[in-house]
Amino acid sequence: QSALTQPASVSGSPGQSITISCTGTSSDVGGYNYVSWYQQHPGKAPKLMIYEVSNRPSGVPDRFSGSKSGNTASLTISGLQAEDEADYYCNSYTSSSLVVFGGGTKLTVL
Amino acid sequence: EVQLVESGGGLVQPGGSLRLSCVASGFTFTNHFMTWVRQAPGKGLEWVASIKQDGSEKNYVDSVRGRFTISRDNSKNSLYLQMNSLRAEDTAVYYCARDRAGIIYWGQGTLVTVSS
User: Fold this and answer.
1) C-alpha closest to that of B57 among B67, B65, B49, B46
2) Could you tell me if A38 lies within 8 Å of chain B, comparing CB atoms?
3) Which class for B56: exposed (0-12), middle (13-18), buried (19 or more C-beta within 10 A)?
4) Of B50, B108, B109, which has the smallest distance from its Cβ to A99's Cβ?
């Protein structure tokens, strides 16, 4: 049960686009379309931003999008805003009926 | 309105036990997997355990298997996590969550501190 691999940090200026990667294996990210992305502000519970690779829950801006290629999933945020500064986590269902999270990525809006 | 309210956290000595509870409301409890996720201070999210709607399937992260037990009481809309043989590395905020993947609803979290 190894954690999915995410970059520790990414940054971008307001209005720019950034992409956060989430790399797993064929037993998790590559094998299922059950990849989700969560945003977490300090001291708050996580918020679901993307589910099943590319679906947005109601209320999540369309600036947030998800995709997957092979064993790597990606979260793209376009038109960066100050309030997007947060920690972002991916997670995936696995072949052992388990769930695994990525290590998290700190997004800084410059 | 969906609500998940955890309780039972606190300070416990290494080797001790604690039972977390989560009361759910605002949705049909028996229609959903339920999950515990934890977050150690300053660290990332870690999935701990999930339980199927009828309790027939339970899954655990390797680090807690054999020490923690997830259970539910559908008559009380409640989820539990019995934690035994606690270690310092179990110190974390424990979140109750609805579903197993694509978790929309989270509790506010309850802090468990394992220390002598």
Assistant:
1) B49
2) yes
3) exposed
4) B50
What single string gives the DSSP state of each residue in A41-84? Answer: -TTS--EEEEBTTTBPPTT--TTEEEEEETTEEEEEE-S--GGG
The tens place of each residue's pLDDT in chain B, 116 residues long, gives 999 999 999 999 999 999 999 999 999 999 999 999 999 999 999 999 999 999 999 999 999 999 999 999 999 999 999 999 999 999 999 999 999 888 999 999 999 999 99
Q: Which chain B residue is nearest to residue A91, measuring alpha carbons?
A: B101
Gyration radius from chain B CA atoms: 13
Q: From chain A, pick out residues whose CB is under 8 angstroms from the CB of B101.
A: 34, 36, 51-52, 91-93, 99
- For residue A41, give the nearest of A104, A110, A101 by alpha carbon: A104
C-alpha angle with apex B104: A108 to B22, nearest 5 degrees? 115
Q: Are A57 and B104 in contact (CB under 8 A)?
A: yes
